[in-house]
Amino acid sequence: MTDLELIFSMLGEASTTEIARKKDAQGLSGNKKAAAEGGTIAGNARRELEEKTGAKVSTKENYKEIPETKRKAIKQ
């Protein structure tokens, strides 16, 4: 995950949390609506950045697996 992917993911989560709190979302339906609205905010921001830069934000990069040699170096 790149920095921009992480940032837009965090924007969606933070937006959803704030909307749910302000609207006092209750239950599945209330929180589902807040999640859709938060996701829309992050999606619109991502599309706008992609428009301005001409580059995609989403990539196929995956940093999940770290080679054993790097893990040993990190522990030392």
Write out key terms for the chains shown:
single chain; 76 residues; mainly alpha; 3 helices; 72% helix
Describe the protein in words.
The chain has helices at residues 3-22, 27-53, 68-75. It is mainly alpha-helical and 76 residues long. The protein has one domain. α1 packs antiparallel against α2 (27-53). The protein is flat, with a radius of gyration of 17 Å. The two termini are 25 Å apart. The model has no long low-confidence stretch (mean pLDDT 88).
Name the poorly predicted regions.
none
Number of domains: 1
Assembly of the depicted chains: single chain
**Structural class by SSE content:** mainly alpha
What is the H/E order? Answer: HHH
How many angstroms does the end-to-end distance come to? Answer: 25 Å
Indicate the overall shape.
Answer: flat
Report the strand count. Answer: 0
Radius of gyration: 17 Å
In DSSP terms (H or I, runs of 4 or more residues), the helix count works out at 3
Major sheet description: none
Which whole number gives the mean pLDDT?
88
Q: What is the beta-strand fraction?
A: under 5%
Helix content: over 70%
